[in-house]
């Protein structure tokens, strides 16, 4: 389920956070689906359980998962009403990315085409010009 790059400069817990986020965003992990237990996942990946716990805490902080004491961690269903702050953060990040793409020579048309391609890949349907 998870492949980690042990030679990467990125800390293992951050890699794990990104992999789980990707699985949630791409709907591979469904809302309210239970995540693997910390010890089970640590054993499968042959890494310290504290690393898994740290990744789960970060995902919970970012509101991708929730925990039930004694039961485990679960995928949090998307809550659209409470996402304003996160959307603002992502908008700022997108602005930075677009600026960098323009700096590297991408035209506005190329950037728009890339965004449309990503939206359609992620199930957003077709976009009108």
Q: How would you concisely characterize the structure shown here?
A:
It contains five helices and two strands.
CATH topology of the largest domain: Arc Repressor Mutant, subunit A
Order of helices and strands: HHHEEHH
- Please identify, by name, the CATH architecture of the largest domain: Orthogonal Bundle
Low-pLDDT regions = none
Give the number of domains: 2
Name of the CATH superfamily of the largest domain: Winged helix-like DNA-binding domain superfamily/Winged helix DNA-binding domain
Task: Assign the structural class, choosing from mainly alpha, mainly beta, alpha/beta, alpha+beta, or little secondary structure.
Answer: mainly alpha
Task: Describe the sheet with the most strands.
Answer: 2 strands, antiparallel
How do the strands line up in the largest sheet?
1-2
What does this structure look like?
The mean pLDDT is 87. A two-stranded antiparallel ribbon has the order 1-2. Helix 1 (12-25) crosses helix 3 and helix 2 (38-45) packs across helix 3 (49-61). It folds into 2 domains: 12-75, Winged helix-like DNA-binding domain superfamily/Winged helix DNA-binding domain (Arc Repressor Mutant, subunit A, Orthogonal Bundle); 84-121. It has helices spanning 12-25, 38-45, 49-61, 84-103, 108-121, and strands spanning 65-68, 72-75. It is built from 5 helices and 2 strands.
Task: Please write out the topology.
Elements: H1 12-25, H2 38-45, H3 49-61, E1 65-68, E2 72-75, H4 84-103, H5 108-121
Antiparallel strand pairs: 1-2
């Amino acid at each position: 389920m998870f492949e980690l790059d042990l030679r990467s400069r990125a800390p293992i817990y951050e890699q794990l956070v990104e992999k789980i986020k990707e699985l949630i965003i791409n709907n591979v992990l469904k809302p309210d689906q239970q995540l693997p237990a910390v010890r089970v996942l640590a054993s499968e990946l042959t890494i310290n359980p504290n690393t898994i716990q740290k990744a789960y805490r970060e995902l919970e902080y970012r509101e991708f998962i929730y925990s039930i004491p004694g039961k485990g961690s679960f995928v949090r269903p998307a809550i659209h009403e409470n996402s304003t702050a996160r959307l603002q953060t992502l908008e700022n990040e997108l602005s930075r990315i677009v600026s960098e793409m323009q700096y590297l020579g991408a035209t506005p048309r190329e950037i728009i085409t890339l965004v449309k391609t990503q939206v359609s890949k992620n199930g957003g349907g077709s976009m009108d010009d």
